[in-house]
Every structure is written in C-alpha cells, then in structure tokens.
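ok new one. same drill as before - structure tokens go in, u give me an amino acid for every spot. 104 of them this time. try not to just spam alanines like last time pls lmao
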C-alpha cells in the first residue's frame, strides 16, 4: 500500500465552497483502479489548510493511473482553483502502524 500525502492550502474564505466541490470530486477518485481509500482533514490551527491522505495499491495507480485519466481532468476542474499556493504531493511507503487497543 502507498499513501499519497498533500497539504491543501485553500484560499481563505473559500473553505465551505472547497468542501462542497470535494464532495463531488471524491466520487471520481474513489472509482479509480488501485484506489483503496482517502481521508480529508481540516487544520484546527490553520482552518484554510487541509490534509489529504489517499491510499493506493501502487504509485502507478495514482500517477500515471488517476492523473492520466479523464476523471483527473474533472478533479482538476473542481479543485485546483482553490489552492494558493499549489500543493506538493508526495508518496509514502508504510513502515510502522500502531492501532488503537481494543476496549477492556
């Protein structure tokens, strides 16, 4: 499993509009081969900054897979105009996982 990481700096004042657009965009990425799941979180300290984590089966499933698809063109149309500056995307391979312990 590969984890895609992107900090999304949304133009201040456009957070609600971004979240509505993301609700549509997430259906595009979720239908892609190799997609395993995603999490979008909003910063408490910097409310116009979001953390996007996407799980892929491989880097290639993301790029060129998703990024080379017609769905990505729509993703870009829905979301890219919100970012200032444009986010840096990186991929990570899992090293360690610690899960919540089961309740007693």
């Amino acid at each position: 499993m590969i984890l895609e990481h992107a900090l999304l700096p949304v133009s201040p004042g456009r957070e609600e509009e971004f979240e509505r657009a993301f609700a549509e965009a997430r259906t595009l990425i979720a239908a892609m081969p190799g997609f395993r799941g995603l999490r979008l979180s909003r910063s408490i300290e910097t409310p116009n900054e979001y953390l996007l984590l996407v799980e892929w089966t491989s880097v290639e499933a993301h790029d060129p897979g998703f990024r080379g698809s017609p769905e990505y063109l729509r993703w870009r149309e829905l979301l890219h105009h919100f970012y200032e500056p444009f986010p840096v995307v990186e991929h990570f391979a899992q090293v360690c996982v610690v899960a919540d312990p089961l309740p007693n």
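The helical segments are 15-30, 59-66, 70-79. and btw The first strand starts at residue 2 and ends at 9.
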